[in-house]
Amino acid sequence: MLEARLASATVLKKLLDAIKELVTDCNLEANEDGIGLQAMDNSHVALVTVQLEANEFDSYRCDRNMPLGVNLGSLTKILKCAKDNDVVTIKASDDADSLTLLFESPNSDRIGEYDMKLMDIDQEHLGIPDTQYDATITFSSTEFARICRDLSALGESVKIEVDKQGIRFTADGEIGNGSVLLKHSAGRGAVRAPPASRSRKAAKPKVKKEAKRDPDDEEEGSEPDVANVESDEEDVKPDVQEEEEEKPEVDEDDEDEEEQEDDEAEQPKKRKAGAVAKKETNGRAKKAKDGEDDGEAGVSIILQQSVSLTFSLKYLLNFAKSAPLSKQVTLNMSNEVPLLVAFEFEQGHINYYLAPKIGDD
Amino acid sequence: MLEARLASATVLKKLLDAIKELVTDCNLEANEDGIGLQAMDNSHVALVTVQLEANEFDSYRCDRNMPLGVNLGSLTKILKCAKDNDVVTIKASDDADSLTLLFESPNSDRIGEYDMKLMDIDQEHLGIPDTQYDATITFSSTEFARICRDLSALGESVKIEVDKQGIRFTADGEIGNGSVLLKHSAGRGAVRAPPASRSRKAAKPKVKKEAKRDPDDEEEGSEPDVANVESDEEDVKPDVQEEEEEKPEVDEDDEDEEEQEDDEAEQPKKRKAGAVAKKETNGRAKKAKDGEDDGEAGVSIILQQSVSLTFSLKYLLNFAKSAPLSKQVTLNMSNEVPLLVAFEFEQGHINYYLAPKIGDD
DNA sequence: AGAGGGGTGT
DNA sequence: ACACCCCTCT
């Protein structure tokens, strides 16, 4: 049986707003690690994964692995019945034919209880290899959303080029061409040599498989398909959550405190997530007065080699709907390999994978 | 070649929002005076003119007259890619087959560059005579917008009557009749005898031609046509900008300092525009606390003789979309002559001309 | 409370 | 496809 208590409904609401248009039905995978979700989008082009960490819940109990097949539209409707600051309790009995959501006002003077029918969904669990990316760019998620929105007025595709100078998004279309260049920020998340951050990653157990995909993988995943997905269930979830935990730190310790953070890396994740949240708050307060509040925390670029990839803006626009979940987004790119768009938030993360268009000059 | 730099994208955005539904394609006329636009609306009923003064740009360079044929929809799309406080640079090379817009964030960490295809547009340049109007009413632009919106719920036409008491807008329709009366403000922009303000205007060179239109002009422009437009290119732009520069002052010196402002009238325009902007700011700050911020600066009426004219609300609604550009709007009316609706803003002005309906009451 | 974005209707 | 209205996010 599952019983998970979350202090605020707002994360769940934002999560569902983010993915409900990408995925109609899918299994929520509840287990001792927390609640996860993995699904191809409806047109089978993009892959979304979500993980809510068990130890980020106010309380969490899950006796066994439970695949909970939900219709995300229905779940969204039910979540609309919760106020943002309601305390949410998610319950499922062992037969798992329905999911119960309990919404309590903060002072418990109102309690809503909603039951949702579950469905059986046959869903292969895809293994997602832990890729070492050639370029990792972390910047304002609202800036990301803004760029995708702006450029989608011009064309259907965006070319993303990353080099030492910064990251450039370019779209061409009938009415004209547009390009947006974000320069890496001096003083904060500036361009950093990869080895420094990689060495920290080596401390993790069973991370990294191969850094690059096989060429034929990209062949068949040429356009509308996530190329580097494998069917290796065993090591997927650990990999994903370890890897995602990693990325924001790169930006974190760009400030001043690398060694300290490395120490913390051995500690429970709860502690680390707290640090992330705190830092984000600082970032906002710090930047609040300089007028430009999209530039929060600047643009961090970690570059192993320059990349140039082209993607469908339609999907990026969808991914950018996760911006309310996190102030920062991380784009992970290697040439001819699917893009990983990652959002970290206090309770977990959401990752999107999208294969590049081919012939992307 | 043209290169014009504007400290903030917001004026351009507002301008295009204001006219993009009225005009589809038109030439931007860049020359040493600045950037101008003149176009009939798509149904050839109303006339719009815009002027952005060269000396109000942060920097301005235009070597020769360049007609830049733009699709306003495309330009609007591109301007949506600029944030309000972005610095905008407009560039066109001498062959003028495309227009480049550069959007830089205030701290230059983001640079957007957009190229827009230009088109050849054959467009006669209409001469607009400098008319002395029988009634000139200056009041809150949002009030104007509100009245147009409110009355358009009742009928398709509005009768505008101006006399010493004030200005009355009346609409009749099936569900009932409505009328809004704005009284001239005591203490501020009150009704003023025309000679006083006319004498100031007399200080300008080459102003005023004839005060009234020829009757046959109105005949052919009876309903859907701007009647008093002549094909006299020479004196149009100077006249327009002189005249428009004049109007807000009427309201300005209603405060206490008539003579001083008359002195300034001889000074360069740059100086005067600055004064206008400053006064507007004061007006906002002053009124901020009395709750009614539509009544800013009151209602100023300069009346030579009473007028009563009827106009299509559809067009007035469109004109009122310029309200974000200026806190004040000026209506200039003479019986049986097209209405001039004028908005002044720091970088220039926008004027709308609309012929009255006949049988107007 | 205001502005921007998304969705719906013409 | 464009315009208008409503809702959400800032």
UniProtKB/TrEMBL annotation, chains A, B:
<dbReference type="Pfam" id="PF00705">
    <property type="entry name" value="PCNA_N"/>
</dbReference>
<keyword id="KW-0235">DNA replication</keyword>
<dbReference type="GO" id="GO:0030337">
    <property type="term" value="F:DNA polymerase processivity factor activity"/>
</dbReference>
<dbReference type="InterPro" id="IPR046938">
    <property type="entry name" value="DNA_clamp_sf"/>
</dbReference>
<comment type="function">
    <text>This protein is an auxiliary protein of DNA polymerase delta and is involved in the control of eukaryotic DNA replication by increasing the polymerase's processibility during elongation of the leading strand. Involved in DNA repair.</text>
</comment>
<feature type="region of interest" description="Disordered">
    <location>
        <begin position="186"/>
        <end position="294"/>
    </location>
</feature>
<feature type="domain" description="Proliferating cell nuclear antigen PCNA C-terminal">
    <location>
        <begin position="127"/>
        <end position="184"/>
    </location>
</feature>
<feature type="compositionally biased region" description="Low complexity">
    <location>
        <begin position="187"/>
        <end position="197"/>
    </location>
</feature>
<dbReference type="GO" id="GO:0043626">
    <property type="term" value="C:PCNA complex"/>
</dbReference>
<comment type="similarity">
    <text>Belongs to the PCNA family.</text>
</comment>
<protein>
    <recommendedName>
        <fullName>DNA sliding clamp PCNA</fullName>
    </recommendedName>
</protein>
<dbReference type="InterPro" id="IPR000730">
    <property type="entry name" value="Pr_cel_nuc_antig"/>
</dbReference>
<feature type="compositionally biased region" description="Acidic residues">
    <location>
        <begin position="230"/>
        <end position="265"/>
    </location>
</feature>
<keyword id="KW-0238">DNA-binding</keyword>
<keyword id="KW-0539">Nucleus</keyword>
<dbReference type="GO" id="GO:0003677">
    <property type="term" value="F:DNA binding"/>
</dbReference>
<feature type="domain" description="Proliferating cell nuclear antigen PCNA C-terminal">
    <location>
        <begin position="292"/>
        <end position="357"/>
    </location>
</feature>
<dbReference type="InterPro" id="IPR022659">
    <property type="entry name" value="Pr_cel_nuc_antig_CS"/>
</dbReference>
<comment type="function">
    <text>This protein is an auxiliary protein of DNA polymerase delta and is involved in the control of eukaryotic DNA replication by increasing the polymerase's processivity during elongation of the leading strand.</text>
</comment>
<dbReference type="Pfam" id="PF02747">
    <property type="entry name" value="PCNA_C"/>
</dbReference>
<dbReference type="GO" id="GO:0006298">
    <property type="term" value="P:mismatch repair"/>
</dbReference>
<dbReference type="GO" id="GO:0070987">
    <property type="term" value="P:error-free translesion synthesis"/>
</dbReference>
<dbReference type="GO" id="GO:0006272">
    <property type="term" value="P:leading strand elongation"/>
</dbReference>
<feature type="domain" description="Proliferating cell nuclear antigen PCNA N-terminal">
    <location>
        <begin position="1"/>
        <end position="124"/>
    </location>
</feature>
<feature type="compositionally biased region" description="Basic residues">
    <location>
        <begin position="198"/>
        <end position="210"/>
    </location>
</feature>
<dbReference type="InterPro" id="IPR022649">
    <property type="entry name" value="Pr_cel_nuc_antig_C"/>
</dbReference>
<dbReference type="GO" id="GO:0006275">
    <property type="term" value="P:regulation of DNA replication"/>
</dbReference>
<dbReference type="InterPro" id="IPR022648">
    <property type="entry name" value="Pr_cel_nuc_antig_N"/>
</dbReference>
<dbReference type="GO" id="GO:0006273">
    <property type="term" value="P:lagging strand elongation"/>
</dbReference>
